[in-house]
Amino acid sequence: MTLFSKFCLIGCCLATLSLQATDRPNIIFFVSDDHDFDLMPTAAFETIPADVAPTIDRLSRSGATFQNAYLTTSVCTPSRYTMLTGRYPGSSYSSQYKKVLENNSQGSPEFNLGVEDDGQNLAALLSKSGYRTGFVGKLHCSDRQRYAEIYAETPDNEKPAIKIPNEPRTLDITPAQSEAMYRTEKILRRYVVEGIGFDWAKHVYYGNTKAHNPAWTLDAALEFIDENKDDKEPFFLYYATTLVHGPTDWANSAAHANFTGEGIVDTVPQAEGLEPFSTIQQRIGSKYDEEVIKSRKYEGLAWIDASVRVMIDKLEQDGLLDNTIFVYVADNGVSAKSTLYEGGTRASMFIYYPKSIKPSVVLSDVSSADIAPTLLEMAEATVSDSYRTDGKSLVETFNNPTAEIHPEGVYSEIGMARSVVKDGWKYIAVRMPTWKAALADPDDPLSSVYRIGYTTNSGLSLAMICRYPNYFDHDQLYNLKDDPHETHNLATDPEYAAKLDEMKALLTTHLEAVGTPFGEFIPGSDTMEPSWEANAQAVASVVELRKGGAGLKGDPSGAITKRPSTQTHANQKALGLEILSKQAE
User: Fold this and answer.
1) Tell me: the pLDDT tens digits for 323-336?
2) What kind and span of H or E run contains 150?
3) Diameter of the chain by CA atoms?
4) Please, where are the H alpha helices in 379-521?
């Protein structure tokens, strides 16, 4: 783990950026949700027509677009943690993740961590350096203990009168449920300010939603820009849209325009300048095949682009565009979500800043953990020695698009898997601790699959297990240039033994930096030797699963009769330890 003890005391002169302290840039950090790296038209990838998202296409071609950007993980919560902190999810020291590591257990970063409350994150550091910081949109990475404390401190007459799920199960909610959503959103605002360190927050979603409402979040974003456009101090806006995560019936969302993160509102949000969805639908539908529109989420992507256009038009109108950094990144891919394959961790990412970034396609291998240190450097932020990041500044790539930022390779992690990418090669290590392997039930192999995926999200695990034939291989080596879909595992081929050893050594460097147990690389209390015998039950389960007819969308044949609901890491571990205890009797 790197101590971020350098970069930019206020007033220093940057060799590459030549910014004056009084002319520090505004920053908009735009995070989209659930789309593959090549499913947004950018200068690096031209698989999607530019007219689906013309504003994003134009911005990317006017800035630095990263062709080989990798996310540190492939599901929402840990990915957003990285973006807000610059740290790997496995480096988290949040209250809930500390419990995962108790008794020197193997780390399993997924939906079990949150942003710490010590002010060592991007927003808090920028705030301390004179920026006005704002948060709008999807959170999904709260520290549960800190949130519970803020909830407990909330006066009873301001708390929800009834309990509601974080994501309402239906759009048909009662007035009481709507009131509960309204009050919960106000508590979320307090959490973002008091628990994370933002100065301002409005229109916050805890997590996913049953209806997208970009006008609702844009209203808050435009309000924040308006409040700060004339200030002498710069602003930082973190804007996290819910698009294009499900539900993907965009028209249904548009038809429920009064459904927001605050419940049902009397006045339908009307973000000035936002293209109506009906116009988007007509524009896209007149040009492209219906199946292509649906499978590639064209309408949802166009809705994202319409949101970006509103922001860019607002900045231009207020004379702020030339001095505003605009960062775009998707939180995870969807075709390989919850894995470390390209469709999960490779990112759609660009940085636009016309004052000092020339148009370029950056070929360097980079990480989403690099965004925070890059912005801190460009903002000339004051950073103390106590701030820890796993990322590195990307400023060098703005002038040299082939600069080697990560000679040690780019690292990613999810649940029971870790990976490293370098120069077109990827190594994935899958290591199950003893308690996780114990969840494989020889008397019920089909249901076992749900419990022994990389993460505790059983639905995601099933889809990816069915899609990727090498999912349970404990060592996986891929030549991404020759095998971009990662179907040919070279780890057992003697011809590539030296490459396998090289990539394992790189991964070891990252694991030692994170410093928590993982398999034989860093043994812990629940380490087991990786072997085909150890994974035999998993492989047998997959074979039976496919025979039963389960596919990418679940179990249409009904072959799996005991599918458990999505469990927490703590519940799964408790069950595994109980099984091991009984086996030892």
Assistant:
1) 999 999 999 999 99
2) helix 144-153
3) 73
4) 395-399, 434-437, 445-451, 458-467, 497-514
